[in-house]
Amino acid sequence: MQPIKMLLLSDWNLNPMVRFLAKSSNGIKIEAKEAPYNQVHQLLMNLNHPLWTEDLDAHLIWTSPESMIPSFQKVLDYEPVDMGQIIKEVDAFCDMLIPSTMKSRFVFLVSWSVPPHYRWIQTLMNKHNTGLNNILMQMNLRVAERLNEHKSVVILDSTYWYAAIQKKSYDIKMYAIGKIPFSRDLFVLVSEEIQAVIQGLLGQSKKLIICDLDNTLWGGIIGDDGMENIKLGGIDPIGESFKEFQRELKRLANRGVLLAISSKNNEQIALEMIEQHPEMVLKKRDFSAFRINWQDKAQNILEIVEELHLGLQSVVFLDDNPIERDRVKRALPEIYVPDLPEDFTQYPIFIHTLNCFETSSITEEDRDRAKWFQVEQQRQEEKKLVGSLENWLSSLELKVKVTKLNESVLPRAVQLLNKTNQFNMATRRFTPEDYWIWSNQAHHSVFVFEVEDKFGTAGYTALISLSKHESEQVEIEDFVMSCRVMGKGIEEVILYYAKIATGSSRLKTKYTKTSKNQPFFDFIKDKYVKGSTVWLDNDQIQKPNYITLIEE
After folding, report:
1. CA-to-CA distance for 25 and 329, rounded, in angstroms?
2. Is 384's pLDDT higher than 70?
3. Which H or E element spans position 32?
4. 241-294, pLDDT tens digit by residue?
5. What is the dihedral of CA 415, 512, 404, 526, to 10 degrees?
6. What are the tens digits of pLDDT across the range 80-114?
7. Beta-carbon neighbour count of residue 168 at 10 Å?
8. Of 519, 421, 418, 464, nearest to 203 (Cα)?
9. Domains (ranges, CATH) in the chain?
10. How far apart are CA 422 and CA 1, in angstroms?
11. Cα Rg of the chain, angstroms
């Protein structure tokens, strides 16, 4: 992957952060360039400056509130303030920033806060229109409101950074020497956070957590201790910690992260514990797959990943046993295997602070993802009973509904583009704003597809975008489909719709090979005109009879 080119704008010296951003993290490497010191206003007001002419992927704006909002200095100096004037200055700052959104794909704006060492009058800190915290919150909320329509802008939370590092975040001596206000620890943390955010924006965040059971989801060994002696909930501090740990996993599941189990255990005893223990937060229905046996965990994990149609790079493995962690790290190096704390009471904080689950949005499809995989298990069970693949597919009563891209489905469409890796023809990534502009150009068309069968709906799970040239030739620009619906002929229907919707006698593709999108090529390779790697053979594009196509 090409390095992310980023411009750093600040009224501080951010030079130490440049080398930390350059350290590769999960495939993300950032080539950062620092703008001249304390030239934020000048650069935002002069978009013809040479720094803007470079091919930027992102720029970061990190300022102190008093430098951008002059009236805020009065708050720090305990002088009377006019809240109306402060908001007016915040609006002026936003007006100055907005044009720069056209200069790069992502804009990272750091929220305004004060360093943790700074003590104001505690009794007045949150007093409306008077207190330091209250005014800062209003300023940040106004910025968020004004920039809400500019989807390329990501507002980063500096208060979390300060809290995570605490007083070590500020280095008054380094500020006096070189106008570098922050410690090395803070720069490292911020660099890691920015890399994690970019991973999420580019669809490279983790999608699946595979958990062990004993001393991971509960305290004790269920096969030896029995359900009555397991530490989970109650008034025991360790039991309470495990229950809170499960709550944190449940929260991740609620936003679309899948959960699975790989445990060396007796399956019947383990499932009884999961279903019958009164303090269990997570139940069998919360797990999309499980392997509870005495087999090698690395092999079990491979089977789970294959079953869920995910890549190994999408997986986090949690296990209290360092030997099992080492086995998985060595056998499956693409998987992220963090070391769990030795102290069980630290589990909830540990999982809560992992930064590998970043996302730019949470859609209804995300919230229903675990439910969909449970339904998929029902489909697979029926497949065993029906017999032939053709009979099984016919029995599903599949329907594919097609909708022209509109603003209500835009977040999901962009999510499909940015998160899908395996069945993704071009692997283009967009912000919602950029894709909406692209889709509304006169010669472009984008269609999204909702898949439904007798078990329920999988939601919007596919997208195709087309461009029509002056020669009346139609080119497929994006062809993306969730792994959730692969292998049922849905991809055939989508390609068929592209043919009939455009009335084109010839369709053209631009397949861009990556390390992950082989499944798309396996689908498309037999549909090219013989001897061509660009033109598709219309005779090879047919709709399966067992699928109903509905155009809305």
Report:
1. 16
2. no
3. strand 30-34
4. 999 999 999 999 988 899 999 999 999 999 999 999 999 999 998 999 999 999
5. -120
6. 889 999 999 999 999 999 999 999 999 999 999 98
7. 15
8. 418
9. 4-201 (3.40.50.1110), 208-352 (3.40.50.1000), 378-551 (3.40.630.30)
10. 16
11. 26
